[in-house]
Amino acid sequence: MNRSKIIGATALATVMTAGAAQAEMSIGGFVEGYLNDGGNGMSQAFGTNSIYVSYSDSLDNGMGVSAAMSIYSTNILTAVSIDTGMGTVSLGNNRDSAVDKNDGNPACFSLGACGSAELGAWNDGDTVSGNSIGYSNSMGGLDFMITRGMEGANVDPVMSYAVGTSIMGATVKAGVSSIDYKDTTQDIDPSFVTASYSIAGLNLGYGMYDNDDGNEETTMGVGTSMGGFDMGIQFASLDASTDKDMTEISVNKSMGAMSFGVDYTDTDEAGGTTNDTENWRFYYIIGF
After folding, report:
1. Domain residues of the chain, as ranges?
2. Residue 115 CB contacts under 8 Å (≥ 6 apart), including other chains
3. According to CATH, what is the number of the domain 97-288?
4. Is 100 helix (H, G, I), strand (E, B) or coil?
5. What would the pLDDT profile of 194-234 be if each residue is shown by its tens digit?
6. What digits encode the pLDDT tens for the residues 90-128?
7. What does the DSSP 8-state code read for residue 125?
8. What CA dihedral angle connects 217, 185, 95 and 12, to 10 degrees?
9. Distance between terminal CA atoms of the chain?
10. CB atoms < 10 A from the CB of 165, how many?
11. For 183-197, how does the pLDDT look when each residue is reduced to its tens digit (9 = 90+)?
12. Of 116, 117, 100, 128, nearest in space to 216 by CA
């Protein structure tokens, strides 16, 4: 995904023409690349090259409005949020499902490879949702989000729900998506639960991702900082038609605008050693 400075400059100029006294604008981005060695020689690739432009202002009635543009390759994705005072309504063509927005894996400590489930084909409801409409709010110590996807040729609008809270110092999140198909494809309600907790300089993480189709993954990890380095280890186990286990060790170093990281990943598949893998990956990220 190639970054476009021309598009970024045009977006920046457009945003700045608003000129309202209380308006705020920011522009940033990053480049992520890596060298990879899976035992068959070294390769290199870019994870992403992106520019992000955001703008926020107040409406005449006191409501807040913001727009964010993600610019990469030939794509411009725009998200619009309206703060109504009783929650935030989200629109645009860059709206994640509520589950996708909240299912990040707190047991992962890699610089560039952290997402949600590590080993299974986790279905967070985002792809089949299309451009979702979302509502989020905080109430009684709970942060919650609800999204409704668009109807597709073979799928009904996907409803996705997520909630997060803090319990005795632990951050806990959970969510579920309801995916109902119009054809003979099996309807599913994939769900997740994550928890993170910090104690005595250690960051503990847990995640459970249930695809509701016989595919369930559990992951646990612990991370810390030592001698100016961030490091962590993650263990993941997939319970599916073919079981898998994974161990990942990550060591990262931040140097201001640039960060480096090294991951060692060992994956074992049940039924023999044919599909077992060992992989080394060196990450570099430059942000601005």
Report:
1. 1-94, 97-288
2. 104, 105, 108
3. 2.40.160.10
4. helix
5. 999 999 999 999 999 999 999 999 999 999 999 999 999 99
6. 998 878 899 999 999 999 999 988 889 999 889 999 999
7. S
8. 100
9. 17
10. 15
11. 999 999 999 999 999
12. 117
